[in-house]
Amino acid sequence: MSVPGVSRSVLAALAAMMLAAPVFAASAPVPAVWVSRHVYFVYRGFTVHYSCSGLRDEIVQLLTRLGARDLNVRSVGCVRPEGPARFPGVDVSMQVLAPAARAAAGAPRLAAHWKKVVLLSGSGYRAGGQCELMTQFRHTFLPVFDARAIHLRATCVPQQITPGTHLSAEVLFPSRAH
C-alpha cells in the first residue's frame, strides 16, 4: 500500500502500533472474592525508627492504597507510649480481593480488575528513608494480596538514607459498574 507523502517506514510503524494496541487495552474482568487475611508484622530497621503509632499509621496507609477493607490494625511490641520503639509491630486483620479460583466454593464473586499501585515512587528524602520498611512490606504483605508484577527497587544500607527506593505492584480492585 502506498500513501502519497508518507514513507514506508512510517506506514510500517503505524501498522505495528495498530497490531499492538490490544496489548494496552483494559484487561477482561477477573472473577474475585473478598477473603480474610491476618498478618503479624514486626519492623526491624536500622536507619529509620518508628513509634508504634507511626508504624501503625504507615501500614494503614499502605494497605488502604492496596484496596484492603475492614482493616483492624493494632500496635504490638510497644513499651512506651511515645517516641521511637526498638521493634514496633502491628497485628493486622483485613479483607483483600483474591482471584476466585483460589477461594472456597460458594463465596460471593464479583468482577475485579488488576490495577497498578505505586506505594513509593523512589524520589525524595522520604523514599530514601523507607528502604527497609518497603523491603519488609513487600515480603510480608504483598503475598496476602495475590499481587503480581511486583517491582521493588531498593538498596538498603544500614544507617544510611538510600535514595531511589521504589515499590509498586498490581493488585485486584473491584470493577466499576458501567
Can you characterise this structure?
With 178 residues, the chain is of the alpha+beta class. The chain has one domain. The protein has 4 helices and 6 strands, in the order H-E-H-E-E-E-H-H-E-E. The protein has helices at residues 8-24, 52-65, 124-129, 131-140; strands at residues 30-42, 69-76, 89-99, 110-120, 148-153, 166-174. The longest helix is centred in the N-terminal third of the chain and has 17 residues, at 8-24. 22% of the residues are buried. Mean pLDDT is 80; it is low at 10-25.
Intertermini distance:
40 Å
Portion of residues in helices?
Answer: 25-40%
Q: Largest sheet, order of strands side by side?
A: 2-3-1-4-6-5
SS summary, helix count: 4
Number of domains: 1
This entry's quaternary arrangement is single chain
Query: How is the main sheet built?
Result: 6 strands, antiparallel
Series of secondary-structure elements, N-terminal to C-terminal: HEHEEEHHEE
Question: Uncertain runs with pLDDT below 50, 5 residues or more?
Answer: 10-25
**Category from helices, strands and their pairing:** alpha+beta
Strand content: 25-35%
Average pLDDT taken over every residue: 80
* Number of E-state strands: 6
Rg over CA atoms: 21 Å
Principal-axes geometry comes out as globular
TL;DR?
The protein is 26% helix and 33% strand. It contains four helices and six strands, in the order H-E-H-E-E-E-H-H-E-E. A six-stranded antiparallel beta sheet has the order 2-3-1-4-6-5, with helices on one face.
Could you give the topology of this structure?
Elements: H1 8-24, E1 30-42, H2 52-65, E2 69-76, E3 89-99, E4 110-120, H3 124-129, H4 131-140, E5 148-153, E6 166-174
Antiparallel strand pairs: 1-3, 1-4, 2-3, 4-6, 5-6
